[in-house]
Design a protein that fits this description.
This is NADPH-dependent FMN reductase. By secondary structure, the chain is an alpha/beta fold. Helix content is about 40%, strand content about 20%. α1 links the parallel β1 and β2. α1 packs parallel to α7. The N and C termini lie close together (about 10 Å). Bound molecules: flavin mononucleotide (FMN). Flavin mononucleotide (FMN) binds next to α1.
Length: about 180
Amino acid sequence: MNIVVLQGSPNRSGSTAILAENFERGAAEAGHRIQHIDVAAKNIRPCTGCVTCGYEGPCVIKDDNRQIREAVLGADMLVFATPLYYYGMSAQLKTVVDRFCAYNSSINRKHMKSALLAVAWNSDGWTFDALESHYQTLVRYLNFVDQGMVLGRGCGTPQMTAKTQYPASAYRLGRELR
Ligand SMILES: Cc1cc2nc3c(=O)[nH]c(=O)nc-3n(C[C@H](O)[C@H](O)[C@H](O)COP(=O)(O)O)c2cc1C
């Protein structure tokens, strides 16, 4: 499979990156091709809601999202990797998701596989309730086929994350993909 990992943390060596790297190592060992995109390092402006695209492109905003559109439309699987920011995905990743607007129908038709990798400082049981619900709603709306989630509680720093089971869980998720 062609797998596109949308890495939504501005910290290139942070906890989100640790989960993404472990997932990617597992998926590469299983024979998949990985494209890792640091979305926070890209120049991607928020959707203005003009709907000139008619929900199926081209988008009037000319920025780095053109590369992301090309990658997503060439993918068999999308991986959303994000730190938990106020109980949702990062704004950097949400901006990319909102820009799906200009190729919404194309994404819908593809029935892509998907997964969610996320980290948070909090370790309460309810930490990921809102993000999990949002992700599951995207899966339903965009006709994704969910392959799993790694929800890293108590992953407030890379040092904390390295001591948890979540990097190994992310590796296994990648390694066991069919
Ligand atoms: C703007 C911001 C908002 C955050 N919001 C939450 C939150 O709602 N719940 C939580 O448990 N941790 C929250 N955190 C902590 C991060 O999710 C956590 O430190 C994570 O490990 C950061 O990942 P990174 O290393 O990839 O940047 C927040 C951090 C920042 C900077």
